[in-house]
Design a protein that fits this description.
By secondary structure, this protein is α/β, with parallel strands linked by helices. 36% of the residues lie in helices and 19% in strands. The strands form two sheets. It has a six-stranded mixed sheet, sandwiched between helices. It has a six-stranded parallel sheet with strand order 9-8-7-10-11-12, sandwiched between helices. The two termini are 33 Å apart. It binds 2'-monophosphoadenosine-5'-diphosphate (ATR). 2'-monophosphoadenosine-5'-diphosphate binds at residues 123-128, 146-148, 151, 166, 182-185.
Length: 270
């Protein structure tokens, strides 16, 4: 039996075990996926230990995505982003970041085109970086809005985008095609928060919130109310996992089985 897992701290609430174990069952693979809580001072030991024990692969989650770079050979995108969410052990200890590809697939599976789109990206943390690099490589025009302007400026510089404070986000949406929220604004327990007001949204927008707790954030509720197209955070979660699965196993991931497992797990927790 091959062992896979996710390392984080805390990690007990990760949806990845349910998602990957469902995929292994569907494809009748003799594999198991387990969450491992790893304290920061043991991160290197955990990664090298998993390699020594013959693990099939690891996902990496908060707070280890950046520090993992010191213990793996990252590919170019993970190095650019400065964060790793997937480790593969087949050819040495290699690090990847599938978050951007996950976001791309969450949009393209709904028929949304990224190349040439005007994107307003809210946030400048790890998730925003992964999306900004990947979408900029795909040919999107990216405006970054962040509470801390300096972080938006740093990210905008490297993806050839423009940086703004959060205060002007609402007024800037007129020419925007896709609004993406990567911040925790609107995430449980802050259910009444949103990065824009309802009046600032319009029906030609695609509004993508990477939050999946709740599935429909206040931002998405209001976007739906004005007739905008809405995309919740489950697609990105599932597709970043599916791409990790592909790296580890070389097989086409059973995306719909993985999505069903995530939705079931989320509904149990409500
Ligand atoms: P992640 O890796 O999940 O993206 P992160 O690196 O901690 O998490 O980034 C969180 C993002 O959410 C940041 O852009 C943060 O803004 P700052 O750079 O100003 O800290 C943003 N964020 C978090 N809470 C926020 C709030 N209440 N209002 C506005 N932005 C917020």
């Amino acid at each position: 039996m091959k062992v896979f897992g996710v390392i984080g701290n805390p990690v007990e609430h990760s949806l990845s075990p349910a998602m990957h174990n469902a995929a292994f069952r569907e494809l009748e693979m003799d594999c198991v996926y387990h969450p491992f809580r790893v304290a920061p001072e043991y991160l290197g030991n955990a990664i090298n230990g998993a390699n020594a024990l013959g693990f099939g692969g690891l996902n990496v989650t908060v707070p280890h995505k950046e520090q993992t770079l010191h213990f793996v050979k990252p590919d170019e995108l993970a190095l650019q982003i400065g964060a790793v969410n997937t480790i593969d052990f087949k050819n040495g200890i290699r690090g990847y970041n599938t978050d951007g590809l996950g976001a791309e697939k969450a949009l393209t599976e709904k028929g949304i085109r990224i190349k040439g789109a005007n994107i307003s990206l809210v946030g400048a943390g790890g998730a925003a970086k992964a999306i900004a690099y990947h979408f900029s490589n795909l040919g999107a025009n990216i405006d970054i809005f962040n509470r801390t302007l300096r972080r938006a400026e740093e990210l905008a510089r490297v993806v050839n985008g423009h940086a703004h404070g959060l205060d002007i986000l609402g007024k800037s949406l007129e020419n925007c095609d896709i609004l993406i929220n990567t911040t925790t604004v609107g995430m449980y327990p802050n259910l009444s928060e949103s990065v824009v007001t309802r009046e600032q949204l319009h029906s030609d927008l695609v509004v993508f919130d990477i939050v999946y707790n709740p599935l429909e954030t206040k931002l998405l509720q209001e976007a739906r109310a004005v007739g905008a197209k809405t995309i919740d955070g489950v697609g990105m979660l599932v597709h970043q996992g599916a791409e990790a699965f592909r790296i580890w196993t070389g097989r086409d991931p059973p995306v719909e089985t993985m999505r069903k497992a995530v939705l079931e797990e989320l509904s149990c927790r409500c």
